[in-house]
Every structure is written in structure tokens, then in C-alpha cells.
What we know:
The strands form 5 sheets. The protein has a 3-stranded antiparallel β-sheet, with no helix packed on it. A 3-stranded antiparallel β-sheet has the order 4-8-7. By secondary structure, it is mainly alpha-helical.
Amino acid sequence: MATSPFPPPPGTRVDGSAGVRRGRRLLATRQFGPGEVIGTFRNPLLALPVERGMRTTCNHCLRVAGDPAVTQLRACTGCKFVVYCSVACQRASWAAVHKHECKVFTRMASRTGKDWLPTPVRAVMQVMLLLKAGNAAATASFGDGGSLEGNVDAFKRDAEVWNDLKLQSMAAVVYGGILESEEMLERAERVICKIQTNAFNWLDADTGRAGVFLDPALAMVNHSCVPNAFIGFNGRTATLRTQQGIEPGDEIEISYIDYTLPRATRQEELRLYHFQCQCSRCKDELNVYQICAESPAIPLNTFSLQPDLQKLRLPPIEGPGMSSAEIDTIYKAWKAAAIPESQDPIQLAQARWKLCKPLADAKMWAVEPLPSTLLQLVNYYQDGHPKALALSCFLATECEPYKLVAPFMPWRIKGVMMIAKLLSGTAQITASGELAHACSHKGLIEILSKSDQVSMCEAMLRLVVHYAPLGESDDWEVLSEATTMLDDIESLEGRQNQSALLRAWAKYPQDPEGGAFFHSVVLKPVNELAALAIEIVDAELGNGKSLVRR
Ligand SMILES: C[S@@+](CC[C@H](N)C(=O)[O-])C[C@H]1O[C@@H](n2cnc3c(N)ncnc32)[C@H](O)[C@@H]1O
């Protein structure tokens, strides 16, 4: 029997049959620890930047202008459509797919003047060109009877979506210069359905990297809104990792969508995958607190900004909380709220905060769209504003640990890094005596004036440095930034004692002296700052009436 060009990673196997119930699925054949890599996927069948990034993203490794590893981006001398960061990337891309695509782009530009294609059209065109060239991996996955699920009949039943897919596949055939026969059009339609079902569209808002990624082995992983694994993208590489311990025989499941969104929104986003999610979050309409309370990842928080494991098990919800349907209604109104571009974005924040009030009244801080509203306000403040610091502390202690229970989840790491950066700004203005200028909030001034903000910042960086390789990779920009900041702090005079205590805590969070230092010098002020957050938001965005009942 021929071996698949895309075998499952060691320690896993594919079970089940295509098209039968949940189709095939990836099972663990050995134990995996929390945060462990299940598989690294370095040779995807499709990896392309989205159309708006075609001139600013390397067409092969998907690094962007601004990335330290990218010194220059040079256009392909043939088509001039795509750019590369190195000769090695240009050669690898040429061998993988661009030798077929380059002449198509050149012809297209000379005939139509067009110098870009919508991403889905380009993706289908690439596959069609690979199939035409007899590429073995493309044939095994996308050819007639190829391995990937396409849900073609289900797509055909959804008239609105199907019309779009038909137009896009037709465009791929036309622009690709592929014989416009009925057979080729149908083949292109099957290809686009398979891409829609199996590709990941990823976006890193911080770096601006965005792309489409498809690896047929990774495509065997099914969805759950209570996933035990997640995928990180780093350029052309995808890494599948556990969110919690996985036992032999367990199904490995990721979430195709943001699983912390309310139920109706999740179901709407899953519509294109054509199944009814039967996970406990969907079936039993559980909110983030209820899911968190049962999570096997809770004990991992011993080393985190929310080390009170009992609090994670017993959520702070007031009364019966809000129903799934009520939360869906709030979220829909929140998404629909918009203001003309010319107006101050604070007006949008005010409208959205008002919509979030029932959630705040029920103390459901971690339930979307409340955390997103707070984050928007953090981004609204200027860098280093003490109010942004209070809000970020609230997000990192009262919201994110419930939403994402494992402390190495990239979004949680980013939240801790945000606190570190804000502290480096507030520590400077405190030391230079400008704090009262920058902020009029008496409570904030009082906490910051008496806190050892440098130790607080160092503790955040130690968390980031510890978790970043687990959440993303050794060459994640967040990790290098944290390491540089940590080196700077370690080189400061007169901080040997504090640094030694924080090192001891980072090595062993229960270390009596290191742990006590972390709790009194870092966690206490973090919680004090967090305790001011809702009052600050309400004063800024609300009607002045405090919602804080703590
Ligand atoms: C990326 S594929 C996953 C592998 C797929 N089961 C197969 O056999 O090729 C996505 C498709 O798998 C199926 N699927 C994934 N998660 C599912 C779930 N939780 N319940 C039912 N079907 C699911 C749906 O058909 C979905 O469109």
C-alpha cells in the first residue's frame, strides 16, 4: 500500500471513515503532557499570504516586512506579483508552486492589467495548476477520490454560499488559463469546497501576518468548542499542541473558531463546516465559567497571575448569571453597534459598555463581549497610561484565566506581556515624579507610588519567558522582546535580592521566600489595580454610577 505523503504525526493515528458521522479523526496513541507538541507541520500543501499582504509578506516563508529576520523583500523578477525575503525562499517557492503560477500572473497582467487575485481564487488556482502538472501530493489530496473532505453536497444546498464558491472557482479556471470545460469547472468547485473545509485562515493582528494554510495531515483534526489542543502558526510552520494532558485513545480536537464567543455566533461561524457541534459548551449551553470549573488545566495556574485555583473552580457569578440566549442577544447588538469613522471611537466604546452592563451586573466579567470591550479601552489609552494598566491587570486576573484556562495559551501570554510593557512605562513616570501629571486617579497613584513596579514588571517577564515557548515557539517575537526587557532589568544596579527571589519563585512557585515575595510585592498590587478597573471604566464610559461590588 502506498504511504500517504501526509502521514499523521508520531504518537497519533487517524481513525474513522470519510463522510461517516464525524468523518475521520486524529487519536492519540500515547500520553501527551500539557503544552506538549503533538506535531509540527512544515511542508504544507498551501501556504499563501492574503491578498492585501502580497507585497509586504514573503510569498514562501510568510514573514512580513518589519520582522527582524526580514531585511528586504524583493519582487519576483518574472511576474512582479509576489515578493521574497531571500533567494532561498524564492527558490523553494519556485519549486513548490510558483513555477506554475508565475507565467499565469505575467499573462494576466499583460492582458487585463490586473496585478492581484482574491486569496480564495489564488488558492484554488494554485491547486488546479498543481493538479494539471501531476503533482503527487495535490493529486492524493485534491484529485478525484483524493483524501480531503469537501462536504460538496452540503455546500450545494446552501445557495448563497454556493453561488460565491462557484464564482470563485470559475475565476480560478479563467485566470489560471485552464481549459474551461464543464469537467474542469466541477473539479475547481470540488477543490474550493475542500479548501474551505480544511484550510486555516490565520491572522496575527500584532505583526500583521495573515495567510491561508492547508496541510492534509493537520486537516484530520476535528473541531470541539472545548478543545484539548490548539494550533500556532509561525510563518510556514504550524504547530499542534495540547492545551491539557491527553491520554492514549483520546481524540485530539482543536477549535476551528474562537471558542470563547457566545453560542449563536459560534454556530454561525461553524456553518461553513456543515455539522452541529455536540460539545458540552454547545449542547449544555455552558458559559466560560462553567467550562473553566471542570477544566483539567486549572492546576497549571499555580504559576500564573491567578494562582487561586479555588476561585477558578468556583466562579464569581452573581445569582443565576445570564442565559446563553441573553448573552447571544448582547453579543449581536455589540457587533452591530457602529459609529461613522469620523466620530470619536470612545463613543463606540460607550455604546458597547452600556450593552455589557447586564454582564457586569451579573459579575460575568469573562463572558464576551465584556473582555473585548475592556481591551478596546486599553488600546484607546495612550501607551503606558496607568488606567490601561489597571484594566490589563483586570483582564489578566478576572477574564483571561477563565476564558483560556491553560496559562501558556498565546493570548494569555500576550496579556501578561502587555502588563509588563505598561509597567515599564508607569515605573518610569513614577520614578521621574510625573505620575500625578499623567493620571488624576487618586487610588491608582496611591497603589503605584507604593509598589515596586520594577519587580512587578520582572515577574510578568518571567511568566512570559517561561510560557512563550510552550504557547508558540522559541522564535516568537514576544519571547525575544521579553528576554531583552528581562536582561535590561537584570542589569539594573541594586536589584540582586528582588531578582533572586523572583528567580526562585519562577523555578518553584511554592518556594517559601520566592512565593511570599511574589504574593506580596507582585500579586497584591496587581489585584489592587485590577480592583479599580470596573470603577474606572464606568467613570470613563458609563453614567458615573459604580458597578463595583467588591
Ligand atoms: C478539517 S475536516 C476534519 C476531518 C474530517 N473529519 C475528515 O474526515 O476529513 C472538517 C470536517 O470534519 C467534520 N467535523 C469536524 N469536526 C466535527 C464535529 N465536531 N462534529 C461533526 N463533524 C465534524 C465536518 O465535516 C467538517 O467539515
